[in-house]
């Protein structure tokens, strides 16, 4: 298994693989190998040695780091300057039974974003530029090391969420943001999912700047340590300077329905559990990640609940629903059908605890025109299918 | 500016092409007369003009798809155009290309407060989105200075920014979904009202692709609740380097202002003469900082920012006490371009970005270049994100001045890249900066970008001659370096 130190070695390994007609699995710390499909590969390309912070300028809000750098190391470095990765990458090590949170390269390759995605953006919104070797074995770079840049195509977007199927990335430049001085959460009680979504919509129609919004059904709320007399709990996170957080909390309490307030330390733990899907750790079956229009979540959940024994909760104001449901093709198929019936979206089999991957696609099947374009984009970077072949779709 | 050699055979077929287009769209949607086409011969970069082969203004996505399908089948080039406000020549016509105008796609289709988004046709203006939702307290955040005229489809094509993108992001960060029509006439929907999909982010690469990958036929935009309060500071400095440091100090202190703008002495005085905003005429640099949010927060942060500015050596600080005063602070900045237009017959507006800490070096470079070329330069910056807008003053009636101004501009952009920055922060490459691309990108970098182009448009029919200085045939780009004459995986399909 070649352990590469830099992109020149990556290029050589890729060209060798082309020559020997072998395929490669691109691997950092291997914490996310359960995400997506098992690629068809002959050798591993270990990129975990490409480590280290290259340049960090907190006043510029810009961090350049090698893709194999552990996420934990980056977060510690940013914390020292009172900054953070605002897209709040999840730690799925519990769910995926892996040893750590992995590398920044893995976070970007899977576009892994947490609760603040709703208001601050996803991982893809924070990648400013990178350099890489394509599946052709050729070095290229895109973007830059500044925040505002429209020079050439925005290939950073394409790299995020491409699961290492297009290129091997070394240096990435990421926009950082100041860490909020303080935070707290408000808990609202609701009788049903519909009124929970409506409550959140009302809160977001106010000028009180909620930063994150989750919906926990009572059974999940209990898992989260919130034992309250309400069928659904809406959790609203407020962040900022203390004066502002307190002021906004006071205004939101006036809207009624508040069951309690969660202070900073507990609030941070609660949101970490929501972010990391810890709340479904003990639930049975497969874990599905559903991205939908926020207002459609209640109807989708209602449809699914009628037919299956599920545990679920929602983040992103309803726009992200985490489901634990029965293994096998029927459940995922029903989720995708419910999405189609309610405004569209995306259902992704995140954690396969049965043999479901063999029965239906992990990633949502693409409409024909988009599938062809996707195949052509793959070929534009990796015409021979050397990198992570089949990780996302058949042949991609 | 060298554009691709026009195809004389296509030009010779002009009349029959117009007739064929007339069968795909309503008769009055084809502009064939020279007089009619004249109205479309340039965009916001008016130094370059070219009559298009024909102008077609489809009214529906089906008509648009039919036009694209026809052009693709006939090998006719297509130049897309929104409102024609591009500052980099993105919508500059070609003599042998059909100009597809999206002006008739002018309806807002859905205002969805439950999902906090607006679905609109691409010809709707940027400001119209905010107008449609402001009575309910919402707005659309990206605010390019041309927002009264520029179209949202054009915003997607150029990934437009504005003075508030430091805090609220560019178009790409506020876009939820698009419908696009490919050069083959295929209609495709990417994204929607949901936040993330799990596939290649094709919407992300469409955004800012300057009309080279497809034509956007519908957009879904995220709208935000208007902040409760907005207040601004007007801060003068005797020293540009101190001003640049102050900007870094604010962000270093964990404050992300809604906007943070800087102007130099020449720009300050031109603006003050024009709108009498009360700018400090003797200052070397002026910073406008705007904070928005809940009132208590804005009040507290205004004090913190004022303290940081004072510590950094500000020579004057004014804090807005009313909306009128805040608007007055902005009036000078917003009219900086026309104000400079009053003190010079012509000017060139540049658009590079640098790491902000290099601003003092950049000021020195510009002063040196100004002497070298014998031309004045006025500066307005989006200081928060390091995006520069140097305005190079010249007189087109003086022989050689335009060329000198262009060389001056190229030298500034070269300096931007050397300092770790980029050629364009928000105006796009278009034709204007096309030939400067090799300063920032290697041949291999650009070839990889063009391979992406080939995935969308294998025949280079969409907006050719823009962005890339050299057009490579897709077959050539797709060729692999073959070791020892052995093609690996010989049975795989190749595009």
List the main descriptive attributes of the protein structure presented here.
heterodimer, A: 396 residues, alpha+beta, Uridine Diphospho-n-acetylenolpyruvylglucosamine Reductase, domain 3, Alpha-Beta Plaits, 5-stranded antiparallel β-sheet, B: 495 residues, 3 domains, 7-stranded antiparallel β-sheet, 19% strand, globular
Give the arrangement of secondary structure elements.
The complex is a heterodimer of chains A (396) and B (495).
Chain A: H1 7-20, E1 24-27, E2 43-46, E3 53-57, E4 62-66, H2 71-80, E5 83-84, H3 93-96, H4 104-109, H5 117-120, E6 127-134, E7 139-143, H6 155-159, E8 167-175, E9 177-178, E10 182-190, H7 193-204, E11 212-217, H8 218-223, E12 232-240, H9 242-253, E13 258-262, H10 264-275, E14 286-292, H11 297-307, E15 311-315, E16 320-325, H12 329-341, E17 345-351, H13 368-381
Parallel strand pairs in A: 1-2
Antiparallel strand pairs in A: 3-4, 4-8, 5-9, 6-7, 6-8, 10-12, 10-13, 11-12, 14-16, 14-17, 15-16
Helix pairs in contact in A: 11-12
Chain B: H1 8-12, H2 14-22, E1 30-31, H3 34-38, E2 54-56, H4 61-74, E3 77-81, E4 97-101, E5 108-112, E6 117-120, H5 126-133, E7 138-139, H6 152-158, H7 165-168, E8 175-181, E9 187-191, H8 202-206, E10 215-222, E11 224-225, E12 229-237, H9 240-252, E13 259-264, H10 265-275, E14 285-293, H11 295-311, E15 316-319, H12 323-334, H13 336-343, E16 346-349, H14 359-373, E17 377-382, E18 387-394, H15 401-418, H16 437-440, H17 443-456, H18 474-478
Parallel strand pairs in B: 2-4, 3-4
Antiparallel strand pairs in B: 1-2, 5-6, 6-10, 7-11, 8-9, 8-10, 12-14, 12-15, 13-14, 13-17, 16-18, 17-18
């Amino acid at each position: 298994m070649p352990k590469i130190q830099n992109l020149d070695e990556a290029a050589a390994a890729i060209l060798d693989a082309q020559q020997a007609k072998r395929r490669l699995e691109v691997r950092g710390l291997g914490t996310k190998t359960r995400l997506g499909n098992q690629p068809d590969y002959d050798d591993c390309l270990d990129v975990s040695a490409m480590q280290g912070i290259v340049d960090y300028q907190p006043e510029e809000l810009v961090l350049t780091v090698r893709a194999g750098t552990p996420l934990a190391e980056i977060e510690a470095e940013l914390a020292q300057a009172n900054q953070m990765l605002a897209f709040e990458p999840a730690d799925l090590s519990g769910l995926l039974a892996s040893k750590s949170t992995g590398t920044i390269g893995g976070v970007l390759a899977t576009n892994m974003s947490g609760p603040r995605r709703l208001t601050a953006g996803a991982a893809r919104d924070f990648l400013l530029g990178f350099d890489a070797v394509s599946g052709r074995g050729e070095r290229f770079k895109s973007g830059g090391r500044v925040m505002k840049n429209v020079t050439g195509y925005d290939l950073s977007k394409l790299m995020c969420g491409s699961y290492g199927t297009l290129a091997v990335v070394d240096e990435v430049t990421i926009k950082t943001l100041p860490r909020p001085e303080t935070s707290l959460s408000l808990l609202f009680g609701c009788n049903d999912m519909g009124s929970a979504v409506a409550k959140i919509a009302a809160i977001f129609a106010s000028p009180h700047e909620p930063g994150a919004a989750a919906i926990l059904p009572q059974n999940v709320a209990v898992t989260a340590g919130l034992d309250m007399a309400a069928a659904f709990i809406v959790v609203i996170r407020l962040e900022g300077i203390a004066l502002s957080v307190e002021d906004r909390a006071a205004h939101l309490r006036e809207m009624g329905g508040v069951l309690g307030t969660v202070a900073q330390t507990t609030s941070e733990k609660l949101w970490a559990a929501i972010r990391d899907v810890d709340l479904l750790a003990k639930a049975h079956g497969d874990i599905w990640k559903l991205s939908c229009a926020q207002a459609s979540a209640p109807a989708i959940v209602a449809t699914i609940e009628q037919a299956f024994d599920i545990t679920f909760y929602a983040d992103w104001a309803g726009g992200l629903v985490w489901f634990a449901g029965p293994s096998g093709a029927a459940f995922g198929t029903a989720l995708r059908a419910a999405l189609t019936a309610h405004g569209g979206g995306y259902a992704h089999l995140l954690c396969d605890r049965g043999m479901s991957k063999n029965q239906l696609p992990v990633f949502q099947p693409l409409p024909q025109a988009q599938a062809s374009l996707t195949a052509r984009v793959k070929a534009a970077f990796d015409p021979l299918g050397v990198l992570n072949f089949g990780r996302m779709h058949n042949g991609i | 500016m060298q554009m691709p050699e026009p195809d004389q055979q296509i030009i010779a077929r002009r009349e029959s092409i117009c007739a064929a287009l007339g069968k795909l769209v309503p008769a009055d949607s084809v502009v064939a007369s020279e007089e009619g086409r004249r109205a479309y011969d340039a965009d916001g970069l008016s130094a370059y003009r070219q009559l298009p082969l024909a102008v077609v203004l489809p009214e529906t996505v089906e008509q648009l798809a039919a036009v694209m399908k026809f052009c693709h089948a006939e090998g006719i080039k297509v130049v897309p155009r929104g409102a024609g406000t591009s500052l980099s020549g993105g919508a500059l016509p070609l003599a042998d290309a059909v100009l597809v105008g999206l002006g008739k796609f002018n309806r807002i289709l859905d205002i969805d407060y439950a999902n906090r988004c607006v679905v609109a046709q691409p010809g709707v203006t940027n400001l119209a989105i905010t107008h449609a939702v402001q009575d309910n307290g919402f707005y659309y955040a990206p605010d390019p200075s041309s927002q009264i005229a520029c179209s949202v489809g054009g915003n997607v094509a150029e990934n437009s920014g504005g003075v508030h993108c430091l805090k609220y992001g560019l178009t790409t960060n506020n876009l939820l979904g698009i419908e696009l029509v490919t050069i083959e006439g295929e209609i495709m929907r990417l994204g929607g009202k949901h936040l993330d999909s799990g596939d290649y982010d094709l919407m992300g690469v469409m955004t800012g692709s300057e009309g080279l990958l497809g034509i956007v036929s519908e957009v879904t935009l995220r709208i935000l609740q208007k902040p409760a309060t907005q207040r601004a500071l007007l801060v003068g400095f005797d020293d540009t380097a101190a001003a640049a440091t102050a900007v870094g100090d604010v962000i270093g202190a964990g404050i992300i202002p809604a906007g943070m703008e800087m102007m130099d002495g020449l720009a300050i005085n031109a603006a003050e003469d024009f709108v009498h905003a009360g700018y400090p005429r003797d200052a070397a640099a002026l910073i406008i900082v705007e904070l928005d949010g809940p009132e208590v927060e804005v009040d507290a942060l205004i004090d913190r920012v004022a303290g940081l500015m004072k510590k950094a050596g500000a020579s004057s600080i004014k804090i807005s006490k009313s909306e009128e005063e805040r608007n007055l602070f902005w009036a000078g900045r917003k009219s900086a371009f026309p104000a400079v237009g009053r003190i010079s017959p012509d000017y060139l507006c540049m658009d590079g970005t640098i790491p902000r800490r290099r601003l003092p070096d950049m000021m020195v470079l510009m002063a040196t270049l100004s002497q070298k070329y014998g031309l004045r330069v006025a500066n307005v910056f989006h200081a928060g994100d390091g995006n520069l807008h140097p305005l190079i003053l010249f007189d087109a009636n003086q022989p050689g001045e335009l060329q000198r101004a262009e060389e001056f501009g190229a030298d500034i952009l070269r300096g931007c890249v050397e300092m770790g920055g980029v050629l364009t922060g928000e105006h796009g490459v278009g034709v204007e900066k096309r030939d400067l691309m090799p300063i920032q990108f290697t041949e291999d970098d650009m070839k990889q970008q063009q391979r992406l182009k080939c995935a969308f448009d294998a025949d280079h029919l969409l907006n050719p001659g823009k962005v890339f200085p050299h057009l490579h045939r897709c077959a050539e780009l797709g060729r692999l370096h073959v070791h020892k004459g052995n093609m690996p995986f010989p049975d795989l399909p190749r595009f």
